[in-house]
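Inputs:
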Amino acid sequence: MRTTIHRWWATLFLWVAVLGMTGTPAAATDAPVIRLTAKKFEYDRREIVLKKGVPVVLEITSLDRMHGFNLPDFNLRADAVPGVVTRIRFTPDKTGRFVFFCDIFCGDGHETMGGTVIVKD
Amino acid sequence: MDHKIDRRDFLKLAGLGGAVFASGLSGWAQAAKSAGAQEFYFVQLSDTHWGFKGPKANPDAANTLKKAVAAVNSLERKPDFVVFTGDLTHTTDDPKIRRARMAEFRDIVSALNVKDVRFMPGEHDASLDRGEAYQEFFGKLNYTFDHQGVHFIALDNVSDPKAALGEAQLAWLKQDLDQKRKDAPIVVLTHRPLFALYPQWDWATRDGAVAIDLLLPHKNVTVFYGHIHQEHHHMTGHIAHHAAKSLIFPLPPAGSVPKRGPVPWDANAPYKGMGFRAVEADAEKAGYRIDERPVVKG
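Outputs:
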């Protein structure tokens, strides 16, 4: 019974996360989807290459524990939660190389957990 | 108004040279004087990261804290108190090792010949267990105390792993400030910067701007903090923020290199970029005097 309740809450949390972050699930848009998976102390992508003016959906999750995704130059952040896919839809409006990093302290190695978003014309 | 002040600007303000660094916080000293306060000074040590191992960054990591304690004990004049502004220990996933490091740290600093030693957590001490072990060894995560007419407020922006003060602590801060005169001398102690120093390296506090807004109506506020492993001075309005050096390894200036990481140990200049500071209220010169001290005398 307890397991069933946990599953129900997990499902509800997933949909709240998805709808809350984006307003519109990625499937309802034409924007390309980029998946980003976090684990101690790295993301599975060191670089994300985007095109200026082209909308994109980031799908963020975690394999082990709560991490963060922070892309300050675009004022974007989200939690990376195990078992939950958090979607962020955004349109890069400037070119360059921009740092993203984990902003939820996760242990010895946290400070090096990050990557680069490269936006091209 | 939000701007960085470099050492030259401060020296110009203070009309001082050499190693003594003075901030033009005239209101602070004037308020202290009018309240009948005496001059006093305290020592700030920060980011000792006991338990860190990394020979390229600091091959003497097992001795640096002990040398800093000896350096404080050899100061010409005994400070009124000593404060450690966080990251006392280096983080570990193992709760037993965390507690062992805290016990070792506490033993080492017990050699300080200063009775009043105060502690604050850094994210390495408190983020993985929300300050549970830290509180067992060092007490409250946030607190206030008064010394010679100055009100000190120690804020915790690390035990929440999201680097936030949180609504409850902000309400506590507001309640505390509401009891103070607007010209009361206030010193805020934190680990992370309250302002967004360089968000790209996570040198910020998520809700730090709320705390600054609460502090701004008060005329005489100064913030001392750590976290960034280097001396740094910044103004948000009339509030000065002073970051302290580390006692384990220096970090490069914000954005000066692509990735944040320790500045490598210089065998020709051991402990370069590390140190602690003595902070003195100088009523005669109407300002703070911040004296940066090395780990060992060169």
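Remarks. Confidence is low (pLDDT under 50) at residues 6-21, 23-35 of chain B. The interface with chain A takes residues 90-93, 123, 127-128, 158, 161-163, 199-202, 206, 259-261 of chain B (CB under 8 Å).
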